[in-house]
Design brief:
The chain has one domain: 2-enoyl-CoA Hydratase, Chain A, domain 1 (Alpha-Beta Complex). It is about 50% helix and about 15% strand. It has about 250 residues and is an alpha/beta fold. The chain has ten helices and eight strands. The radius of gyration is 17 Å and the shape is globular. Helix 1 links the parallel strand 2 and strand 3. The protein starts with a strand and ends with a helix. Bound molecules: coenzyme A.
Length: about 250
Amino acid sequence: MSVQITQNDAGVLTLSLQRPDKKNAISLAMYNQLTEALQKASRDPAVKVVVLQGSDSCFSSGNDLKDFLRAGELDAHHPTVAFLYQLNAFTKPIVAAVAGLAIGIGTTALLHCDLVYAAPGCRFQMPFSQLGLCPEAASSLLLPQLVGYQRAAQYLLLGEAFDTEQAVAMGLVNQQVDSTALLAFAADKALQLAMLPAEAVQQSKALLRGKVKRKADKVIATELEVFGQLLKSDACQQQLQGFFTKK
Ligand code: COA
C-alpha cells in the first residue's frame, strides 16, 4: 500500500502518493486506496476538502506500466477505471500539489482537480501515443476545452512534455510555488477552502463543473473502450516491454 491518508481537525483529507522507488507510479492497490478514500470522503460530512500530492520532489510517473503489461479487462470493477469515475464524480474540492514528474494520469488527474499548485520545472506529459495508447480520464474532452484543439493535439498526439511555466500559462496550474514551500502552500489553500461554508463551496463546484462532469463521464467510457483494445495490441505491448528491457 503506498498512499498515505491523513485527516486534520479542519476537515482536510490528504492523499499522499508514496512509492518513491517507482517515482510514485500508481499501482492497482494504490488506485483502490484512492478510490476508497474518495468514496469515504464523499459520505463523511467531516471531510471538506481533499489534497492530492506526491512528495516535494515527485508527484507521479503515472500508471504502473507493469499493470499495463498485464492488460486485464477495463470494466467498471477495474481499480483504475473505478478511480477515474470516482474522481470525476467527486463533489468536494480537490487541491493538488505537483512537484517533479506528472506523467500520464499524473497530468490527466489534474484536469479533475479544482486548484493545482506546482513546483518550478515540473515535467507534465501524456505520452499515450508513444505507448501505443490513447487519452484517458476524459482528457480528450477536458484538455482541448482548456487549451484549444491544436495545443491538445501537441500534448495528446505527439505527447510533448511541458513545464510548470507552460502549465500555468495554459491554466492547468494555478500558481508556481517553490518546492520547499509547495506542500505547506497547498495545505494552506485547502484549509482556506475548509473554513468556508461547505454547502456553498460544494454547490459552487457543482455549478462550475456539473455539466462538464456529466459529459466527462460518457467520454471516460468511450476512451476506455479504445484504450482497452489498444492496450492488447502488439504495438502497445512492445512499447511497454521496451520500457523495462531498456533498463
Ligand atoms: N510504471 C512502473 N514503473 C515505473 C514507472 C511507471 N510508470 N515509472 C518509473 N518506474 C520505475 C522504473 O522502472 C524504475 O524502477 P527500477 O529502479 O526497478 O528499474 C524506477 O521507477 C525509477 O525510474 P527511472 O526510469 O529509472 O527514473 P528516471 O528519473 O530515469 O525517469 C521517468 C523517470 C518517469 C521519466 C521514466 O521512469 C518513465 O518514462 N516512466 C514511464 C512513464 C510513463 O510512461 N507513465 C505512464 C504514462 S500513460
